[in-house]
Design brief:
The protein contains 4 helices and 18 strands. By secondary structure, the protein is mainly beta.
């Protein structure tokens, strides 16, 4: 509690400083309108073309939740009393490019703090920085270690507009194959959306920054080992990834036996419009996970027959079970200031939620706007709506008193979990940002007997 209050004072001071700057412009000698959008958003200059890349990020989020009405609570419920929580994530990015077509990437990370109610009770949890297992240590760990190889398919080379820690090469062939191998995050490469994918500068909710029904391969911290092969061109991109799955649901240990568990991911990217200020991209996605998963049907039947005292999906795991899912991801610029996005997702929901969160179908829509109208082009304001659901078997399992790795109120009067999120992200100076975020959540954990819930957040972000 003392740490959270100290963090609140720190972030409040940060916001007050920003407010003072906003009144006079962040640089009185050079108005913000003189800068192109996105310029000067890091403390270090990353425009060089040398072989080495170094960067760092620090992100901290303080969340406050007032009390809410709940007829009952269970082992995995969001606590109905008021509470606060603070999380932090520090990342170091290293890359070395021995040639213009090869780079080696190594990122180290440290996560500390925690989430509201130990990150339980919400399918669309309110803070993407929080790991799903609060017992993990706060010791540093290797987040990414990979080889990234470019195979040119054309002689035309262009500046890399997306240059950053994931792709540091300054120029890329117009048509190319890309191969990545090593430790990575699946959602570094799949289901990307420029409006809703960055919890450090945009939305914070799990089900807004990612497709909630995309049970993508990952350990508890969100990383896995895999091989990704991509074709990238000016209008079409195609990528396929083969990833390792965790040994158990929400587990930290990955299963290296590909005969027992694995994940296939395929995404097509269609850039249907490239007009200035009206660019648009559609990304269909399909995935298939194979792992030692529990069956909702078997857990329900064992409870009803008296074999189990309560439904317990972990007691009914079997090797070789699968989960099939798909997603649709749309991005559309709406002139020079506005950008819209939409996601649709579904998975079969027959076997247990395994690697991301307990969502079997989802729909989200949202938009952001640059602060150019008030002469702050690097500020952003965003609004999103997402509604999440689960399969008939999944909801019956929870209704009878079963628990997953995130949800379990002891009973369930089903309703779709619906979330509205709004944020304002303010640039203080160069790579220093502060934001406020408001989330309203109806039917937390799909339960009409609990909520609604409001979550208020303050975020500080520093980027070197």
């Amino acid at each position: 509690m003392n740490r959270s209050r100290a963090g609140l004072r720190l972030l409040s001071a940060l916001l007050l400083t920003l407010a003072a700057r906003t009144a006079h412009g962040s640089n009185p000698e050079q108005p913000e309108t003189a800068q192109p959008a996105g310029a000067g958003t890091t403390f270090l200059d990353h425009s060089g073309t040398g072989p080495f890349w170094f960067g760092a990020e620090w992100n901290t989020i303080l969340q406050l939740k007032p009390s809410f009405d709940a007829r009952y609570s269970g082992m995995n419920s969001l606590r109905p009393e008021s509470e606060d929580a603070m999380s932090g994530l520090f990342t170091l990015f290293f890359a070395y490019a021995p040639s213009r077509t090869t780079e080696l990437i190594l990122d180290a990370e440290m996560a500390y703090g925690g989430g509201l109610s130990a990150a339980l009770g919400l399918a669309g949890f309110s803070n993407l920085d929080v790991v799903r297992n609060p017992t993990l240590s706060s010791e540093p760990y290797v987040a990414r270690i990979q080889i990234h190889q470019i195979i040119p398919l054309s002689s035309d080379w262009e500046p890399n507009d997306d240059r950053g820690p994931i792709t540091t090469l300054p120029r890329l062939p117009r048509h190319r194959l890309q191969v990545r191998f090593g430790k990575l995050s699946t959602v570094d490469l799949f289901d990307i959306n420029p409006v809703g994918s960055d919890s450090h500068l945009q939305f914070m909710n799990w089900a807004v920054d990612n497709n909630g029904a995309y049970d993508y391969a990952a350990d508890t911290r969100g990383y896995t080992y895999g091989l990704v092969v991509e074709y990238q061109g000016p209008r079409v991109e195609v990528r396929f990834g083969e990833m390792l799955m965790p040994k158990v649901a929400n587990g930290i240990d990955l299963d290296f036996d590909l005969s027992r568990s694995h994940a296939e991911n395929f995404e097509l990217e269609l850039k249907y419009s490239r007009q200035p200020h009206w660019a648009g991209t559609l990304r269909p996605l399909i995935y298939l996970n194979t792992a030692t998963m529990g069956s909702y049907r078997e857990a329900i039947d064992a409870f009803r027959s008296g074999q189990d005292p309560r439904p317990e999906i972990t007691a009914h795991r079997k090797r070789g079970r699968t989960k099939l899912g798909f997603g649709l991801n749309l991005f559309q610029e709406l002139g020079p200031l506005f950008r819209g996005f939409m996601r649709i997702g579904w998975n079969d929901g027959d076997n247990e939620s395994f690697a991301y969160t307990e969502i079997d179908d989802t729909f989200e829509i949202g938009a952001d706007m640059r602060g150019t109208l008030w002469q702050r082009p690097n500020d952003k304001i965003g609004l999103a709506l997402v509604t999440n659901g689960i399969s008939d078997l999944h909801r019956e399992y929870l209704r009878l008193g079963g628990a997953g790795f995130l949800l379990g109120d002891g009973s369930l009067r089903y309703g779709r979990e619906t979330i509205v999120e709004h944020y304002y992200n303010l640039q203080i100076w160069r790579g220093a940002f502060a934001a406020y975020d408001i989330q309203g959540i109806a039917n937390p954990g799909y339960n009409q007997d609990r909520g609604p819930v409001w979550v208020f957040s303050l975020r500080g972000h520093i980027e070197l």
